[in-house]
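Repro:
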Amino acid sequence: MPDKINLFKRLENILRAERDISEDQTITKDTLFSENLGMDSLDRYEFGLTVEEKLGMRIPEEKHIELNNLGDYVDYIKSNYLDVYE
């Protein structure tokens, strides 16, 4: 795994690329996938799989449904991979 990185920024970049979201649209840790970005459950699951692939980690399948925004992903990943992310 890489040296410590800014996890939120990394996840934001993955989300923008995956969903083709322009830099003009503000994304915060509280931006909701469903309500604010129009992502359905399949979109959210696919985003989770992309996160797993890009960051080299495993997130349990049932957890993807509980992660509603980037803040949830940051909290989950930090609690399970604390030594890698700042």
